[in-house]
Every structure is written in structure tokens, then in C-alpha cells.
Amino acid sequence: MAQKKPLRERIREAGGLYLYINTRLIKYAGPAARGPYGPRAEPPCGHCGRPKDEHIPGPDGGLRCPEGAGADA
Prior knowledge:
Layout: H1 7-14, H2 17-29, E1 56-57, E2 63-64
Antiparallel strand pairs: 1-2
């Protein structure tokens, strides 16, 4: 049976301790989650932070933040 290389050599070949641990972790946990917004593709309002589909259409065609949510968007 073939001998495993010492840990120090395996870490060196991987490119350092960080890369060694990162590749091992990805094997077990999978890749990182994508995006902070979940299934929603549209980013939230920059003024109040609420989803844009909760906003009210204004008379000038723009969107207004919902009541009690902050300034006009």
C-alpha cells in the first residue's frame, strides 16, 4: 500500500494553508451561497430598504416609499 505524503507536503503543494483548508472545506460543504437577496433578483430600495414592489407609483411616474418607510425614492 502506498504511503500518504506528510501533511506539510500536501499543504505546500496546494499553495499554502489557506488554499488547502478552503479546498477541503468546499469538498464537504459545497460552494458558497449566491447573493444576499434570496430568490428576488431586484435589489431593495436605497432609501428605505424595502422591496420595490411594495412602493407606490407617484404622479410623475417614479416610485414613492411606503407610508412610514422613509423619504421618497
